[in-house]
Specification:
Blueprint: H1 13-17, E1 24-31, E2 41-48, E3 53-57, H2 64-71, E4 79-84, E5 87-88, H3 94-99, E6 101-104, H4 115-120, H5 132-141, H6 145-150, H7 175-184, H8 192-208, E7 214-218, H9 226-237, E8 244-248, H10 254-258, E9 261-266, E10 269-274, H11 276-282, H12 285-294, H13 300-309
Helix pairs in contact: 5-8, 11-12
Bound molecules: adenosine-5'-triphosphate.
Adenosine-5'-triphosphate binds at residues 33, 36, 40, 58, 60-66.
GO cellular component, one term: mitochondrial inner membrane
Pfam families: ABC_tran (PF00005)
Protein name: p-loop containing nucleoside triphosphate hydrolase protein
Amino acid sequence: MEDGHLSYPRVDDKWETESNGMELEFCNVGFKYPDTDRWVLKDVSFKIKLGQMVALVGVNGSGKSTAINLFNQIYDTTEGEILIDGLPIKSYRAKDVRSAMAILRQKHYSYPLSLGVNIALGCPDQHDTVTDEEIHEALEEGGADAFIKKLPEGVNTVLSPVRLSCFKDNGEENEELNEMVREKMKHTDVSGGESQRLAASRTFMRLKKGDIRFIAADEPTSALDAEGEMAFFERLKAQHGKKTVVFITHRFGHLTKYADLILVLKDGCLVESGSHDELVSNHGEYNKLYQAQAQAFLSSDEANANSDKE
Ligand SMILES: Nc1ncnc2c1ncn2[C@@H]1O[C@H](COP(=O)(O)OP(=O)(O)OP(=O)(O)O)[C@@H](O)[C@H]1O
């Protein structure tokens, strides 16, 4: 992709003072992954205002994560364009725009370094100036502090160490030293939910440093227990009005009801947009997905009455 020449954030009159988020606009965006023929996004248009909290919903494969990949300039649009703060995304230096974003993805990786360093790497440019206190705060915010305290080596634990081998001068492996290294390099397992808490902590660390204006969270709580999910949502809600937040979720409830705007994707098309109440009363795709979950909490009489209404 060609890099732009403008620095971000913009430094002209209006945008210099407007630091409470990032304005994002999709203008008739169409997208096919490289070397494929299928349109994954088709003629998608929407605008997200500064400081808004937006939910991106839709069934599996509807194109939600792809939209985040385009915000983050992992790929270029095939058709249409994306505007940031009123200008085409391509006119800015990609590094500047990415530095203003914190993206919490579905798949996250742990580097073969201590947990503390993994969290500090939330801000790669400044990881060596991060203090122990900041790491502990980020772990608390991501809900990872309790399980890390139980690990014998705490924040110094290395989850997946690199496998090392020791050789003698003659090129044969040195079994005695290998045994010592194996002992030191023991693999520590964490659960799916714990791993998600670590990824969230890395994102909260990123929010502490630098000028982050946009947060995207792709199914950030899919593996969390109910309490962990609620705590994470509260942390995210605290950013409302200060940063622009987009989250992808399959769980309809707490955060979707609170969102300023819900965008509903189906087969790569934006089929609905509005608030929770508006979309429920539309009786369209959102309501169908919402009711599928809500029915599980209703008594059988209420559920029957609802299905009669549909
Ligand atoms: N790298 C890729 N190359 C080709 N096709 C891809 C690639 N990544 C995703 N796709 C396809 O694009 C479509 C949209 O995928 P995407 O991950 O955006 O959906 P999603 O709505 O986020 O799904 P989910 O709810 O399952 O996470 C899917 O059909 C998927 O198979």
